[in-house]
Amino acid sequence: MTDTGRRWQLRQLPREREPSRDLWAGIAAAIEGPRLAAAPARGRGAWRAAGSAIAATVLLAAFGMGLAQPRLLATVGLRTEPTRHELVLKEAAAMRQRYQAELAKFRDKPVPADVTRALIELDQSADKIMVALNAHPDAAFLLDQLHRTYARRLELTKRVAMY
Predict the structure, then answer these.
(1) 92 neighbors 143 (Cβ within 8 angstroms)
(2) pTM for this one?
(3) Which residues contact 53 (CB under 8 A, 6 or more apart)?
(4) How far apart are CA 163 and CA 160, in angstroms?
(5) pLDDT of the residue at 148
(6) Each residue's pLDDT tens digit, 31-40
């Protein structure tokens, strides 16, 4: 699949997902489980069974709430499509390349000192947004913020170059 196709896939992803029903009641019931009147089993097997049951409940709850990341599927070899994280980072990298290519056209133009501070701040903001995207790839609004920051930086650079 081409980068353009991936970008379109990224734009098609929902901004936020809400579960179709309240899952906490089922999770609480699974954690509580039926209370048996019999004496608890002793030994290593009982601990393994309890640990497996807890792990299965947590995994089931994670899948039910949509929190299971595609990275988990990749570890067991089930992933065929790029993860959302990969799509977000590829889109951000492509955006940065387009921005730098456009900015290169204005490298030779003199910039007044008072505007230089604003340009540096915009560049630092873009760098911080990229760091935030790496830390929180599910925050799709950061792509929009990065785009606006790059657009402001280019607009200011173009204005300065015209004078």
Answers:
(1) yes
(2) 0.48
(3) 33
(4) 6
(5) 92
(6) 776 554 444 5
Predicted confidence (pLDDT) at residue 99 exceeds the cutoff of 60: yes
DSSP string, 39-96: PPP-SHHHHHHHHHHHHHHHHHHHHHHT---HHHHHHTT---SPPHHHHHHHHHHHHH
Size of the chain, expressed as the number of residues it contains? 163
Query: Do 88 and 137 contact (CB within 8 A), yes or no?
Result: yes
Q: Give the separation between CA 12 and CA 9, rounded to whole angstroms.
A: 5
- Is the separation of the CB atoms in 103 and 94 below 8 Å? no
Which residue's structure tokens are 């988990």? 72
Helical axes 44-65 vs 24-32, angle rounded to 10°: 180
- Sign of CA pseudo-dihedral 38, 42, 45, 51: positive
Going from the C-alpha of 73 to that of each of 23, 87, 133, the distances in angstroms are 22, 16, 22
DSSP string, 106-147: GTTS---HHHHHHHHHHHHHHHHHHHHHHH-TT-THHHHHHH
Say if CB 147 and CB 96 are below 8 A apart.
no
Is-contact 84 13, C-beta < 8 A? yes
